[in-house]
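Postdoc handover notes: sequence design on the structure in folder B. Input tokens:
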């Protein structure tokens, strides 16, 4: 069986509100458990490599989405703090503490990151997001 004849399945964790790039949604919209990668490519007038890349991208985005909705662990919180310290210096610890206080008990990663982002100016926010990306958190 070649990669083009594989029949992809919808990712189990995919929800209607999962944030995905448009091109990925176009591919996933045609994933029905019947069409092969080649069939999806033909329907969208794109290459099978593009379909495969979109499917891989979907799994990455969905994994991140699931991660963001889970209760933040001490390890993840430490990584977030390290990323922010590299951008803001020692003041970052206060920002993280404020964010944790704001979101309350059992915060999700999305809640913590959103609270931190609200406290940063645009320049620091972009640098923080770059740091998070290197750690696979954004």
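Designed sequence:
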């Amino acid at each position: 069986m070649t990669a083009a004849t594989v029949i992809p399945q919808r990712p189990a964790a995919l929800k209607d509100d999962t944030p995905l790039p448009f091109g990925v949604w176009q591919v996933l919209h045609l994933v029905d458990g019947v069409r092969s990668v080649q069939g999806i490519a033909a329907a969208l007038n794109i290459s099978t490599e593009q379909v495969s890349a979109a499917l891989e991208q979907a799994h990455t985005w969905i994994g991140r989405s699931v991660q963001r909705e889970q209760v933040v662990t001490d390890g993840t919180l430490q990584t977030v703090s390290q990323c922010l310290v590299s951008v803001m210096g020692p003041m970052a610890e206060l920002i993280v503490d404020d964010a944790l206080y704001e979101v309350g008990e059992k915060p999700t990663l999305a809640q913590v990151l959103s609270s931190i982002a609200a406290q940063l100016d645009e320049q620091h926010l972009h640098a923080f997001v770059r740091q998070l990306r290197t750690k696979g958190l954004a």
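Context for whoever picks this up: The CA atoms of residues 99 and 112 lie 6 Å apart. Don't rerun without checking with the PI first.
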